[in-house]
Write a structure and sequence with these properties.
2 helices; Exonuc_VII_ssu_sf; EC 3.1.11.6; Helix Hairpins; exonuclease
Length: 82
């Protein structure tokens, strides 16, 4: 990961972001990187984590808009089946 001059492209969707974050964690946990590469990869992980959180927040806002601002979905229970 020494090519710090090249921009890192962000994944387009939540699943891709999560996959990239999991790969980043796997590489960090592998312990085979030098200090500079580990710090750069950790920074990438933080960026991916923030992107995933933003994607989730966006999805929440869409759901809230579709349900109406004050609507809170009721949890499903077993009692409703019978």
């Amino acid at each position: 990961m020494n090519d710090e001059s090249s921009p890192v492209e962000a994944p387009a969707d939540f699943a891709s972001t999560l996959d990239a974050l999991e790969e980043t964690v796997r590489r960090l946990e592998g312990g085979q990187l030098g200090l500079e590469d580990s710090v750069a990869l950790f920074q990438r992980g933080i960026e991916l984590s923030r992107r995933a959180e933003a994607q989730l927040q966006n999805a929440r806002q869409i759901v809230e808009t579709l349900l109406g601002e004050d609507a809170v979905p009721a949890p499903l229970t077993q009692e409703e089946d019978g």
